[in-house]
Design a protein that fits this description.
about 30% helix, binds zinc ion, TIM Barrel, Urease, subunit C, domain 1, 20 strands, about 25% strand, alpha/beta
Length: about 425
């Protein structure tokens, strides 16, 4: 590729790039997995390319085992590499559910040759049935950092209390899919627009009630609560308060909740059915503000592949979820651009540094001697995203046809090119 010179099996030179928000253009030499040299660029040509630390997704559904018709570890991590990711946390709602150390180990074995490092999330409760906690100490000793019933909420507050108490002792993070079953019931779309499509509404309070409750429990126990896919302004307010009192709480937002609203959902139909649902434009702007000011720590994709047949149904019957990992960067970069200027340091923080920190991963900065886990972004004139070149086994992206200006042109995992 133009601007990426493969010297031999061990050496690659990435030419004429800026590092994050750096002003100087440099050539980066990668040798045997590490950054060997960073020198002033030989070329004097203008360049719209930046190097960022490789991305970390705390919330990916790879579907394997059990859901290979939608995605596999191979296709999902190839999609991740195309999105600039080097680390993905694979959610536990597979078939069978990843709820024992044995299954975590089996999953790691399956992912040995993947195109990104796969970190296996363990379920919080056995079978994600909201009845009995998993064996936290065995899983912690086996190196699990994230516990989540994602896809389902841990509704039982006694279990949440016990889990966060245990995590306060052992370390590790509880990632909660906040959805009060009693409030949400059969809801499929933001409640204020439900009548327009003739379906049950998914009210904001269904999320906020759990977020408020769990923040109270995290504060009381000292266990680390991570709120998955925040979707409402009042959830943001609750998280802002939690941070103001130094409660051990972090939060994520998805690209689709940052970029799309319930009005888009009504217009475009069940292709935009997702859990939690897309919210009002007021919620969208609150989420954007919270991502910019640090109230929301990270962008996580909630990459949720589904075959065409399960998405092309009615609002009531279509599957919840969208693919997101291949399009996250261009969408997030647009969101973090003000007055034509993209804050690459904020992009690096929310897509790499902060998720690595929450997930317990070591992340080195882009300097001589550090591991070459990085991606290169090119900015240019607007172009339209297409699903035709996607590597995911599924095509349920909400961003086909969406106009953006940035793209991932290279991803490198420990010096090995995983996407170009
Ligand atoms: Zn979820």
């Amino acid at each position: 590729m133009d601007g990426v010179k493969v010297i031999d099996d061990h050496t690659v030179i990435i030419e004429n790039v800026r590092i994050i928000d750096g002003t100087e253009r440099v050539d980066v030499t990668v040798h045997e997995g590490r950054i060997a040299r960073i020198e002033p660029a030989l070329s004097s040509a203008e360049s719209e390319r930046v190097v960022l630390p490789g991305f970390v997704d705390l919330h990916t559904h790879l579907r394997e085992p059990g859901g290979e018709v939608s995605e596999t570890i191979a296709t999902g991590t190839r999609a991740a590499a195309a999105g600039g990711y080097v680390d993905v946390f694979a959610m536990a709602n597979t078939t069978p559910v990843t709820d024992t150390l044995e299954r975590v180990l089996a999953m790691r074995e399956l992912a040995r040759d993947a195109h990104a490092r796969v970190h296996v999330v363990a379920a919080a409760t056995i079978g994600q049935a909201d009845q009995t906690l998993v064996d936290i100490s065995a899983l912690r000793n086996g190196g699990v950092t994230l516990f989540s019933d994602d896809g389902h909420c841990v509704n039982d507050e006694g279990l949440v209390h016990e889990l966060l108490q245990r995590l306060a002792q052992s370390g590790g993070v509880f990632a909660q899919h906040a959805q009060s079953q009693r409030i949400v019931q059969k809801g499929v779309i933001n409640a204020r627009v439900a009548d327009l499509v003739g379906c049950h509404g998914w009210p904001e309070a269904g999320e906020e009630a759990i977020v408020a409750r769990d923040i109270a429990i995290a504060r009381a126990t000292g266990g680390h609560l991570h709120v998955c896919h925040v979707s409402t302004k009042r959830s943001v307010d609750l998280i802002r308060w939690a941070k103001s009192v130094h409660a051990p709480v972090t939060a994520e937002v998805t690209p689709h909740h940052l970029a799309l609203s319930d009005e888009d959902a009504v217009k475009r139909g069940p292709a935009l059915k997702v859990n939690p649902p897309l919210r009002s434009l007021g919620d969208v702007s609150a989420l954007r503000e919270a991502l910019a000011d640090g109230t929301i720590d990270v962008v996580a994709t909630d990459h949720a592949p589904h075959p065409e047949a399960t998405k092309s149904k009615s609002w009531r019957d279509a599957a919840f979820g969208m693919t997101a990992i291949e399009t996250a960067l261009p969408v997030v970069a647009e969101v973090l651009t003000t007055a034509g200027r993209t804050s690459w340091s904020r992009v690096a923080e929310v897509m790499s540094v902060a998720p690595a920190r929450i997930g317990g991963l070591r992340r080195e900065s882009i300097t001589v001697g550090s591991s070459a886990d990085l991606c290169v972004i090119e900015s240019g004139p607007e172009y339209q995203l297409s699903v035709d070149d996607h590597h995911s086994r599924s095509r349920n992206s909400p961003f086909a046809g969406y106009s953006v200006r940035h793209r991932v042109i290279l991803t490198m995992l420990e010096g090995r090119i995983t996407h170009s």
